[in-house]
Amino acid sequence: MKGLHGSMYYTLALPVSRFRLLAVRAGVGMLETVAVLALAPSAVWLMSPVLRTQLTGLDMFEYWVAISACLSSIYFFGVLLSTFLEDWTQNFTSVLAIFFLQLFFTNVPVPPSLNIFRAMGIGSPLITHALPWATMGVSLGVAALLFLVALRVVQAREY
User: Which residues, including other chains, have CB under 8 Å from residue 154's CB and lie 6 or more apart?
Assistant: First the structure.
């Protein structure tokens, strides 16, 4: 039973495809992630009068769009890991991957359009007052690719 969730057989007995199950699970999780990403910066902006004088609501919205798009690739990496790893292993592997990716982008010169951490930090709309379109596009493309790989894993797996 290693790697199998308790409700897996019940879920697989439902009259829906594996694609729909994965898409709904990943979609709901991404919506929850995007909601949390909206709440934290908004709360800081609302509670800080200094920030409200320096940043507009549009700046905060652009920042939310940028971090949501940039973090989508990290989220869908976690979705891929969830298709074949236990929960604790998936979480540990995700944290390690993010740490090493941050370390890699810090120490290796890569084009700014590939560095999602730069787009959420020094190149964010809060500082540049422009959306990092190239970085967001690359991250969303990687997220779509990771979702398709996760879908292949789910469809090919025997339960």
Answer: 18, 19, 21, 22, 83
